[in-house]
Structure prediction request, 85 residues.
Amino acid sequence: MTTSDPIEIEIAREQLNSANDTGRHVRNVYVTFILLISYVAIIIGSTTDVQLLKIDPVTLPLLNVQLPIKGFYALAPLAAGLDAF
Prediction:
């Protein structure tokens, strides 16, 4: 069904623009989530058994900041879960 009614065409354009804006926002959230999960995976992969047993701090790559290992492993899943919303 095609129409040449200018009001309906304008409504369709507004809906299309709204869908495009929402898509951009979702894309940005998705990329941020993937980057956060990748960063956490790198930190987990670089944690040694000795660090876990001695409860030594975890060093964040790129930032070179040390965090308590218990705090990191308690809050990292929470941060990833919050980013999903």
Remarks:
- Residues 6-83 form one domain.
